[in-house]
Amino acid sequence: MKRIVCQDLAYRIAKTELLDEINAEFQSGQINVILGQNGAGKSTLLSLLAKSLDPSAGDIVWQNEPLSSLSLQALARQRAVVEQQQGVQFDFTVRQLVSLGLEIQYSSELLEAYRHEGRFERCLQRIITVCDLDNLLDRSILSLSGGEFKRAQLARALAQIWPLGDCEKQGEEMDFSGRWLFMDEWNAALDMRHQQCFAAMLRQWCRQGLGVIMVVHDLPLAMQLADRVLLLKQGQVVAEGEAKEVLQPLILQEALEMQLQTFHDDNGQALYLPQF
Amino acid sequence: MKNSAGAFPTRRSVILGGILLLAVIGHLFVGHSSLNWNSLLTEGVSSQQWFILQEFRLPRVLMAIIVGAGLAVAGVALQALFRNPLAEPGLIGVASSSAFGAVAIMVLGGWLWQQVALWQIGFFAFASGLLATLLIYRLATKSGQTDIALMLLAGVAVNAIMGAATQLLLSVADLVQLRTVTFWLMGSLVNLSWPSVVGVSTVVLFCTAVLWRLVRAMNAFVLGENSARYMGYDTGRFKWQVMIFSALMVSSAVSVVGVIGFVGLVVPHIVRLWVGSDHRLVLPLSALGGAILLVLADWLARVLLHPLELPIGLLMALIGAPFFLMMLLKQRRGWRQ
Q1: Which residues of B touch A85 (CB under 8 A)?
Q2: Chain A positions in Cβ-Cβ contact with residue B2 (cut-off 8 Å)
Q3: Which of B215, B277, B327 is most worth mutating to test chain A (most A CB atoms within 10 A of its CB)?
Q4: CA–CA gap between residue B37 and residue B18 (Å, rounded)
Q5: Residues of A in contact with B337 (CB under 8 A)
Q6: Cβ <8 Å between B2 and A75
Q7: Is A164 inside a domain boundary?
Q8: Rounded to a whole number, what is the distance in Å from the CA of B67 to chain A's nearest CA?
Q9: If phi over 0 gives left and psi between -120 and 50 gives alpha, with beta otherwise, what is residue B147?
Q10: What is the pLDDT along chain B (337 residues), one digit of tens a residue?
Q11: In this structure, is residue B138 part of a structural domain?
């Protein structure tokens, strides 16, 4: 099993400790969820893992290698990031946006060859279908609604780590091992049907080796999806480990500083929801 | 398959190349009192006319091509850097800063060394232009997001400062300097020497070649600085390269032909309307489009009030400024937040 491990990780700006002594482990083939209040350091941690910030202290070990020794390009071919929000003012079409993700996987020559034999287009088409973007393919991204744009961004990120070599295979046979998807608040703009779709697909890809690290505020979603959970509070780890162990009412109430009500779903599994 | 392949836009380049060729022929032979289209067909070319063609008209049209291409490419690159289609070397103050650097060395250097070499003017224009780019970028950009209002306001401020400083220098200049500098400042393609054409061409071709290697990074960068990093591009290096090479192109053009604004705004905008935002298409087609626009504008500047000659910088401002207002209106109506 491939892992990303944080060892005594710290990040500070001036003298403010945003993250302190983070020891945590994220596993491939699983959905790793980071939970915490606003300002708990979730997004900062995700930025450190994605190498857009450098830690002030401590190390990140990326599948047995120090993250600092990996080049941005090598990293980009192993993991994609779905960011919270971005302002874009250039009118790419959805097709172009998703192509940008596929293109960074290979050198220009290899891409040309893949384009020539049609594999590139077939792969693109498949990702487009997976993200339910078929009707929006040639639309400008400037004309999309918030949720549609989010889906296009998800498709772009997916394309970046999509196993292009396995494109001809059935969905269940694709090999995502060694690939990671980082997601910051990916579900916020999506309608519930699309959330459900993506959740199901994430689960499936995880079985095929994908590692997912997601930051969410949506507790019910986290409880239903998470395999592992990292609970943060004011830049420190409150609890870390198997979802079953961490997602306990008392631990959650302490980390999130709020009262939770317990419900049970159809399978008798407990769900904790805030009371409004 | 539509242009998702995004390979070099050969067919479209040929179309623009054809238009450019027509514009060049028009510029060279239409609207002159001697050696015009008629005399060329009926009388042939005398050696004296050949001299005029070689020493005056040819350098002028070549400079229009190269400066137009350079300014348009610099516009594309700066727009990618600022992640905003309104960034333009003239609007954000790169051009006026380059002009200030050039004027400073023309006036002050004139006292020090009598004769100021072209490369000296170019160097000071470059240094000053690069500083302005850096300053505006620092002012307007925070954690990878450019604030458009801040960018334009900072541009206004830099333009005002540099304009005032340039005027100050002119007020202490002697009469001969004053006349040459003032005319040059308005932007003019008259009286160019072959060495200056060769010099500017070398710089523009080199910089365009460097920026052409960055088109994929530009595509990623306009999605967001972090997005580009996540997609594997070294954004720190990218930003430096864009700043240096676009400033280099703008300043080399400014130090020879003065300030010609709006080329970098108008051309990429029209090209984007035509082919979309993929920089692999936008950059080469803008280079050609910029060349066409400046050749046509210079032709117009020459024949419009014949025998009087309009400064081309003035003409471009007359065309470009309303265009800019139109784009502002369009951008106000909505962009992807």
Answers
A1: 337
A2: 95, 138
A3: B277
A4: 19
A5: 85, 87
A6: no
A7: no
A8: 25
A9: beta
A10: 333 344 678 899 999 999 999 999 998 888 777 777 777 777 777 778 888 888 888 999 999 999 999 999 999 999 999 888 888 888 888 888 999 998 888 888 777 777 777 788 888 889 999 999 889 888 888 766 667 778 888 888 999 999 999 989 888 888 877 887 877 787 778 778 888 899 999 999 999 999 999 999 999 999 988 899 999 999 989 998 998 999 999 998 988 888 898 999 999 999 998 999 999 999 999 999 999 999 999 999 888 887 788 888 888 888 888 988 888 887 766 555 4
A11: yes
Task: Please name which of B163, B185, B174 lies closest in space to residue B111, comparing C-alpha atoms.
Answer: B174
What 3-state DSSP class applies to A270? Answer: strand
CATH (domain of B150) = 1.10.3470.10
Q: Rounded distance, CA A200 to CA A209, Å?
A: 15
C-beta atoms of B4 and A95 within 8 A: yes
What's the CATH number where A262 sits?
3.40.50.300
Cβ atoms A151, A195 nearer than 8 A: no
User: How many CA atoms lie within 13 Å of B291's alpha carbon, on the beta-carbon side?
Assistant: 24
Where in the sequence is the domain holding B307, given as residue range(s)? 59-331
Rounded distance, CA A132 to CA A138, Å? 13
By CA distance, what is B273's nearest residue in A?
A: A91
Nearest by Cα to A63 from A7, A4, A21: A4
Q: Which domain holds residue A32?
A: 1-78+208-276
Contact B223 A95 (CB under 8 A): no
Chain center to CA of B271: 15
Decide if B278 touches A, using CB distance below 8 A: yes
Is residue A17 helix, strand or coil?
A: strand
The structural domain count of chain B equals 1
d(CA A198, CA A261): 27
Residues of A in contact with B84 (CB under 8 A): 89
Tell if the CB–CB gap between A50 and B230 is shorter than 8 Å.
yes
Asked if B277 and A91 count as a contact pair (C-beta separation under 8 A), the reply is yes
In a domain, A92, yes or no: no
Residue A235, pLDDT above cutoff 70: yes
Tokens 């690069």, residue located: B130
Chain A residues with CB-CB distance to B7 below 8 A: 112
Read off the tokens for B160: 């005002």
Nearest-CA distance from B330 to chain A in Å?
A: 12
Which of B223, B226, B281 should we substitute to test contact with A (largest number of A Cβ atoms within 10 Å)?
A: B223
Q: How far apart are CA B230 and CA B284, in angstroms?
A: 26
Q: How many helices (H) and strands (E) does chain A have?
A: 10, 12
Question: CB of A213 within 8 A of CB of A46?
Answer: yes
Q: What is the ipTM of this complex?
A: 0.91
A231 located within any domain: yes
Cα–Cα distance, B150 to B158 (Å, whole number): 12
List, as own/partner pairs, every contact residues B270-277 make where C-beta atoms lie below 8 angstroms and the sequence separation is at least 24, other chains included: B272/A90, B272/A91, B272/B85, B274/B12, B275/B3, B275/B9, B275/B12, B276/A91, B276/A92, B276/A93, B276/A96, B276/B3, B277/A90, B277/A91, B277/A92, B277/A96, B277/B219, B277/B222
Euclidean distance between CA atoms B218 and B211, whole angstroms = 9
**CA A117 to CA B313: how far, in whole Å?**
49
Q: Is residue B6 part of a domain?
A: no
